[in-house]
Automatic annotation (TrEMBL):
Organism name: Lutibacter profundi
Name listed for the protein in its UniProt record: Glycosyltransferase 2-like domain-containing protein
Pfam families xref list: Glycos_transf_2
Molecular function GO labels: glycosyltransferase activity
Gene3D superfamilies, A to Z: Spore Coat Polysaccharide Biosynthesis Protein SpsA, Chain A (3.90.550.10)
Superkingdom field: Bacteria
Family assignment from sequence similarity: Belongs to the glycosyltransferase 2 family.
Length: 288
């Protein structure tokens, strides 16, 4: 059985952290270590992390707020195993996520990374929608132009060797993943498989704030200028237009329209059954 390092950075996540940890303990693949890395939390998150007694769990805290990119790079350095998965502290994983992603990595040794589709949920885990990429592969142009759902960053699992040669840019406070995908893809080092099955529960309610989006679009324009070729000016213009639309939506208090646009509506009752079953499974899992 292939061992996996699961990295979970957290910052002031006391409301959701225990459930995120439960979703790790609920995995059908049980040969893992969990690295919980604090980013200078001022709430009770660190105490929750330290309360876990399982020897597979390691907790790190230096009291500093270094931001996500730095913490993700530190997880790579700390990882004992050659396969690394990540997740966010306010989300949940499907119990079969690690098992199914590992199967792809084991079946295709040329693949370095595997991501999945996702269920978008409210803070109390009510289903909003679902999204996945329309293909199992993605090209540089598709990454650049943000075609389809794209790469779900929080659901990434990959080989430690890939993360070692492709570290996150710690100068970026947001959209570090987008820059990483473009940088790796531009040098033909982005061998990724996009599992279309939704195996990740992403809390999006109140997450897409206008401030975050405007910063992300500003960083996006930097990426277009750096990596864009013949369509550079067109992409920059579209990004400015998106920023303008965000400002309008904020002014009329309609940012939730953007969230609805991101996700596909669910008309498959099997999805509701799956979500109910998996969330019940996670909630009933004991953390030792």
């Amino acid at each position: 059985m292939t061992p996996v390092t699961i990295g979970l950075p957290f910052y002031n996540a006391e409301k959701y952290l225990a459930d995120a940890i439960r979703s790790v303990f609920a995995q059908t693949h049980q040969y893992w270590e969990l690295i919980l890395i604090d980013d200078g939390s001022t709430d009770g998150s660190l105490e929750i992390a330290k309360s876990v007694q399982d020897t597979r769990v390691r907790v790190y805290s230096d009291g500093e707020n270094k931001k996500l990119a730095t913490r993700l790079n530190e997880i790579v350095q700390l990882a004992k195993f050659d396969i690394i998965a990540r997740m966010d502290a306010d989300d949940l994983m499907s119990p079969t996520r690690i098992e199914k992603q590992l199967k792809i990595l084991e079946q295709y040794p040329e693949i370095d990374l595997v991501t999945t589709g996702l269920f978008s949920v409210t803070n109390d885990l009510k289903l909003i929608g679902v999204r996945w990429h329309y293909n199992t592969t993605i090209s540089f142009d598709e990454v650049l132009n943000k075609k389809g759902c794209g790469v779900v960053h929080a659901a990434i699992i990959g080989r430690k060797s890939w993360f070692t040669r492709n570290p996150y840019d710690t100068t970026l406070k947001i959209a570090q993943d987008y820059e990483l995908w473009l940088r790796a893809s531009s040098k033909n080092d982005f061998n990724i498989y996009l599992l279309q099955e939704p195996l990740y529960y992403y809390r999006e309610e109140n997450n897409a704030t206008s401030e975050k989006l405007l910063i992300a679009y500003k960083n996006e324009r930097q990426m277009y200028r750096k990596y864009g070729k013949r369509d550079k000016n067109k992409l920059v213009f579209k990004s400015h237009l998106k920023s303008f639309i965000i400002k309008i939506l904020k002014r009329i208090n309609q940012l939730e329209l953007l969230l609805k646009r991101r996700n596909s509506l669910i008309n498959n009752e099997d999805y509701y059954d799956k979500v109910r079953f998996e969330i019940e499974c996670i909630k009933s899992t004991k953390i030792e």
